[in-house]
Specification:
Blueprint lengths: L7 H8 L4 H5 L3 E6 L8 E5 L2 H20 L9 E8 L4 E4 L2 E2 L4 E2 L2 H5 L7 H12 L10
Antiparallel strand pairs: 1-2, 1-3, 3-4, 5-6
């Protein structure tokens, strides 16, 4: 089984009245491949989806920064957030399902009103991406 329901209603049933986020969020990691085609993937454990979003945005901005400052001649990167499936004993792509919503990407979740850190994450992304001189990007 590759899908777990990670919404508030389901967690209450699975974990009782305890905070469901505390139960699942220590089983998250960001994966990053700075150049598609590489044999290795870079992994970083994170505590929350929002922390994962910050890290993914940072890695993406850093790759752009290197490109615009002639550190890298080009790149084709990819990354995402994964969650540990205890039952299957494997990492799967992150998603969250609540009674009212379903999010299969961290970006969609963090841009939604359900994300408590929406404004802070938008400000963070704007600040780090503001350091990129987009006029230096190859055309």
């Amino acid at each position: 089984m590759h899908r777990k329901l990670l919404g508030k209603g389901i967690e209450t049933q699975l974990y009782g009245d305890e905070d469901w986020r505390k139960k699942i969020m220590n089983k998250l990691r960001v994966w990053w491949i700075p150049q598609v085609g590489m044999d290795n993937t870079f992994y970083v454990p994170v505590n929350t989806p929002e922390e994962g979003k910050r890290l993914l945005d940072t890695l993406a901005a850093y790759d752009l920064f290197q490109l615009t400052n002639n550190v890298k001649p080009d790149f084709c990167n990819t990354g995402g957030l994964q969650m540990w499936d205890k039952e299957e004993q494997e990492w799967n792509n992150w998603f969250i399902e609540t009674e009212e919503d379903y999010f299969d990407t961290i970006d969609k979740y963090c841009e939604s009103d359900i994300c408590e850190q929406k404004e802070a994450l938008e400000a963070f992304s704007k600040e780090i991406l503001g350091q990129i001189d987009y006029s230096k990007l190859p055309k």
